[in-house]
């Protein structure tokens, strides 16, 4: 069964550094999402992406965040200057038209 | 403000018991309600519900939606230790031209042997 894959599974970074989290959505999906989940808290929506542009973003998704679909398969989340409070599990999801979202296994981001 | 509320927050039962997990919502522009199971990593899709009163089943799991009373339940019969997980309810709502998931806090289910 096709899966959403995310790399790396764990990223440790110094505060202030840039990080790029990578996702390969399911190949025929058209809608892409990033979520984060701080340890012990709810899943929070960050951003949705369709037709090569952001279609919706939350208040969390400020100027430090950006997303890209640089080629036909990858979907990346960049955090420009990381803060301690960015430490969380970051999930990528994708879906087809009128289909449920399917999630990757996540990247655990630890900011030191 | 849109919200999704799950209850109970945690539940401990013995293997073989039946459990019912609840999800209520207040969401404008409702499109669908989804149930996910989260173990150590990613939420795994269970059910997508769009119509009231139609039960969806998958093995020992079943779910139903009531759009008038704005809630859904997830039933698990003959529970097994492998059912231990956090069960997440999310409501898909329309914002402008896109759809967004609004998540509940989850129900942590522990099945004791």
Describe, in plain words, how this protein is organized in 3D:
The complex is a heterodimer of chains A (112) and B (113). With 112 residues, chain A is mostly beta strands. Chain A is built from no helices and eleven strands. Chain A has strands at 5-7, 10-13, 19-24, 31-37, 43-50, 53-57, 65-68, 75-79, 88-95, 102-103, 107-111. In chain A, the strands form two sheets. In chain A, strands 2, 4, 5, 6, 9, 10 and 11 form a seven-stranded mixed β-sheet that branches. Chain A is globular, with a radius of gyration of 13 Å. In chain A, 33% of the residues are buried. In chain B, a hairpin with a 2-residue loop joins strand 9 and strand 10. In chain B, strands 2, 4, 5, 9, 10 and 11 form a six-stranded mixed β-sheet that branches. Chain B is mostly beta strands. In chain B, 0% of the residues lie in helices and 64% in strands. The interface between A and B is medium-sized, with 21 and 23 residues.
Main sheet specs of chain A: 7 strands, mixed
Number of helices of chain B: 0
Arithmetic mean of pLDDT of chain B: 93
Rg result of chain B: 14 Å
- Low-pLDDT segments, ≥5 res of chain B: none
3D shape of chain B:
globular
Radius of gyration of chain A: 13 Å
Q: What percentage of the residues of chain B does DSSP assign to strands (E)?
A: over 45%
Helical coverage of chain A, percent range: under 10%
Order of helices and strands of chain A: EEEEEEEEEEE
The pLDDT mean of chain A sits at: 93
What's the SSE pattern of chain B?
EEEEEEEEEEE
Number of distinct beta strands of chain B: 11
What is the multimeric organization of the chains shown? heterodimer
Q: Tell me the structural class of chain A.
A: mainly beta
End-to-end CA span of chain B:
41 Å
